[in-house]
Amino acid sequence: MKERLQVLQEEALAKVEEASTVEALQQVRVSYLGKKGPITEVLRGMGKLSAEERPVIGDLANKVREAIATQLDEKKATLETKALDEKLLTEKIDVTLPGRPVQVGGPHLLTSIVEEIEDLFIGMGFEVREGPEVETDYYNFEALNLPKDHPARDMQDSFYITEELLLRTHTSPVQARTMGEYKGSKAVKMICPGKVYRRDTDDATHSHQFTQVEGLYVDKDVKMSDLKGVLNQFAKQFFGEEREIRLRPSFFPFTEPSVEMDISCKVCGGEGCSVCKNTGWIEILGGGMVHPDVLEMAGYDPKVYSGFAFGMGPERIAMLKYGVDDIRHFYTNDARFLKQYHKA
Hints:
Number of helices: 11
Mean pLDDT: 87
Helix content: 40-55%
Order of helices and strands: HHHHHEEHEHEEHEEEHEHH
Distance between the termini: 89 Å
Radius of gyration: 40 Å
Shape: elongated
Low-confidence stretches: none
Strand order of the largest sheet: 1-4-5-9-8-7-6
Largest sheet: 7 strands, mixed
Strand content: 15-25%
């Protein structure tokens, strides 16, 4: 039995020395030290030995097993180091070669416009509020004085999910939600930017998806003159100190009285040209005094509180400010168009 163990050790060590790969080394380990290997067979046959021989053979078998395992581990470490050295040699790179240029992106033009509008109104004391794009019929229409049978809903034909859920047609629901949250307990001074949706035919000036920034100020003794002052400040800071504004009577179900705001044409300075259709003015946004019914539905006493609201489209503002002639350019993801405005 002793001779058998010694022969197995010599054979195993010789094959360990011959192995040139980790896989071949693993095969030697399985062949000699595995459950079906010869050393395991020797240990299983110890029951046939006398009581005096068993400890001697057992000790020798363990020593043989340990010697083979040690040699296997050492050879494995050597082969792995060699393989790593070869891999590093074949996969090395020349760090002195010039690097590939990394293209740096920039904010989308609409993102820049919205952030610029936000900064301007934050500077005037407004906070920025956001709300869900999937909205309830109540907040999108009814809380804004647009009951289910109101004809003005036709102007905001939208994408309905159910009879009571739809993609919001404006960001005004955020105003209704905020006022409902405060329940007439304090003043509201906020803007709400975001995406809105209306079922429309896409062309150079219309899109089924676009962005809006709407504003709301509700407090005691808020007047139309406050609205005009805020909008005048916005126009001059955004389009230039030389810009003039005018307010024209209009109609919105959620404001009364309602107005459209125009700014003097930048191209002709108000003299009249093809850009402003020879009027000297360009329509930019709508607004008005918050309708008493809207205040009352939100929990505000219209005899105590008053307020104004306004809304604008960043796409239209961007088109006027940067001379963009087609609203679809904002959504077709053409990098040639978008990269022109990364530093806008």
